[in-house]
Amino acid sequence: MQPLPEERFEQLVGEALDEVPDELFAQFDNVVVLVEDRHEDEPDLLGIYEGIPLTERDEYAGAMPDVIRIFRLALCDVCEDEDHLVDEIYVTVVHEFAHHLGIDDDRLHELGWA
């Protein structure tokens, strides 16, 4: 599909974040979500989590926030229309937040989120 304007895409990411169940969202700690066009080294990557998962935090005081990056152009490339894009954004957001919670790709595959 044609890439959505940045403002509309960011709105859809915000709506996806609003859809994350409250009990799950309450576990997020010191993490920001950013929208970017593409990953510099892996242009087909839909999203990435950069940080220290909650399960690995021992001495974490004063650390910079973890970052979840959602890649607008890559997601638009794999979607047929805006409805499909809405679904893919949600799956990508949940997938990356799962990494923040310490869930690896193997487990995400088992759960159907990879």
From TrEMBL:
InterPro entries: Zincin_1, Zincin_1_sf. SUPFAM superfamilies: Metalloproteases ('zincins'), catalytic domain. It comes from the Bacteria. This is Metallopeptidase family protein. It comes from Egicoccus halophilus.
